[in-house]
Amino acid sequence: MSTLTAWIDGVGFLAPGLPDWPAARAVLRGEAPYAAAPSVLPPPALLPPAERRRASRIVKLTLAIGLEAAAGADASLLSTVFTASGADGHNCHALCEQLATDDRQISPTRFHNSVHNAAAGYWGIATGAMAPCQVLCAYDASFGAGLLDALAQVALERQPVLLIAYDGEYPEPLHAWRDTPDCAGVALLLGPERGPRSLARLDVAATSDPAEPLADAALEALRGGIPAMRALPLLARIARGEAGAVTLDYLPPMQLAADLQPC
Amino acid sequence: MTPLLLSAYTATTCLGRGLDATRDALRAGRSGLAPCAFETVQLDTWVGEVAGVDDERLPAALADYDCRNNRLVQRGLETDGFADRVREAVARYGTTRVGVFLGTSTSGILETELAYRRRDPVTGALPGDFRYRTTHNSFSLAAFTRDYFGLEGMAMAISTACSSSAKVFAAAARQIELGMIDAAVVGGVDTLCLTTLYGFASLQLTSPQPCRPYDAARDGISIGEGAGFALLERATHAAPGSVLLLGAGESSDAYHMSSPHPEGLGARLAMEAALKAAGLAPADIDYINLHGTATPANDAAEGRAVSALFGDRVACSSTKGATGHTLGAAGAVEAAICALALTDGLLPGSPGTATPDPAIPVQYLLETRRGRVRHALSNSFGFGGSNCALVFGLAA
Questions:
Q1: B96 contact residues in A (CB cutoff 8 A)
Q2: ipTM of this model?
Q3: How confident is the model at residue A1 (pLDDT cuts 50, 70, 90)?
Q4: Does an H or E element contain B257, and which?
Q5: pLDDT at A120
Q6: Which of A203, A83, A213, A111 is nearest to B171 (CA)?
Q7: Given an 8 Å threshold on Cβ–Cβ distance, is A133 in contact with B153?
Q8: Which residue segment(s) compose the domain that B341 sits in?
Q9: Which of A47, A163, A232, B179 has its CA 20 to 30 A from that of B258?
Q10: Domains assigned to chain A
Q11: What is the rounded CA–CA span in Å between residue B174 and residue B86?
């Protein structure tokens, strides 16, 4: 089995109780306690006013983590890989609710926001990026799927790729069937060569080993409850500057062995 | 990129099941569109519905995946001997070395739309027989396909609206090129649902008559459904005359959620990238299968991009007047049509189109004709400004 390699040049993060990467890094280093709290989504300043007013939670989420990871790079030139276990749950619920009534005249804005690539589309409008933009779904395995395609693009195109893995919640009644508790996401700026901003070298290969649970029960609940948070074991290594391999959950029986070498 | 062999491919649309039915319809210039009679939909529009999808019975062990979209997945896989070719590849390479890369726009959301009509009147809960992961979720068709063949390796769904199942070719090609897998099942499946029918109608993008791509009087799309699949492998031992994927190009419009860039800038970038990946010049292309949805804006923008890059030298057509717009399946269905263009020397015409728009200076084919096709290019563009172009050729 081959290995995919890239340099991690930036990290963006947002999760319940962890508003950005510095906050998450401090918790993952053990320097601050983890306190669960609803995710705080910053307003999307980069969007034009019309789009900003209508921006959904996942649009705010992806702009926040994508721009945090891409700080110092020119976002308008970056290829992107978006990966999410679902689209905008609230928008989906509103559409299904209306389509179940006698008045099926749904809003055109709701319709174009229903596509799985809506957040990616708004990212393009906000940043002006005309580079390739991938949008994936692999249910609980979505982070792994995104990592595989992003690393492959870095390896072949020899250009940086911004991976944006994120998930949002469904309201009831869909929440009973898909209980993602809140919005959360992680973004990684991946480059083909070691650069001045490189944090670590990442090598990824297939394995069938199980992923190790996180020691902190609350963080482990986050890892298991939100698909993008399957990245947490890797992020913990990055936060602590630790070398070595961790197993990330992907698609059973295929898992990903992620080997990190800090710079 | 390193050329890849399409060692098997198939398409099922309203034109019929499989390559022979598709070929016959294209030769005859026949359209499969009919006035919309889907479910309880009350819209003045035409659709390309696949006959008998709901007769398909999934294996008992995979019953949780049962929904219209996965029934069409199975129908497509079990056509033209495609599933057998996949099983041979799995036997050759192993269950961890054959990847699954499938595109869809709405997957099995129809199940959720119907379940919302059966909510508990008191609690609002969905009915107990509802399933989310195996029907509605965008990954459902890839998970079903992976389980259908007992695969244990890489799988992902690509959902970039109407470019989804063109982009699967690019993603799979990357993993094969890097040695992560040896073969890939790529394709796309989308089925009729209320979200897309009422959604495109809300945007006033559906035509009240059969769609007329590139016509001066075009007034919108006809929504279709379809399944297209290809088995990608390294082309080292490709027999002469086999169909090859030579290049893929991807880009973004960065312009608007539901309108294309008016100058077709993103479309042009994708076509240029596909030609570059294939190591070909515009003069090497003999047929372009256009995205050609038949909305005024799409065809004008795409036409500008095509004419800027190719002039009026290259024969081109949209086959959506025949199949309807199969949305997330369009890329894979039209890849199969490009394969037929190459192997049969068949340049498909455009049922429904009467008067090509004089404002779009491309060589638009109204009637199907015969001619040598050395290389074919296929365009697929989606909401959110997602563009993909693919270049196909024949093994020497």
A1: 206, 254
A2: 0.98
A3: low
A4: none
A5: 97
A6: A83
A7: no
A8: 4-394
A9: A163
A10: 4-196 (3.40.47.10)
A11: 19
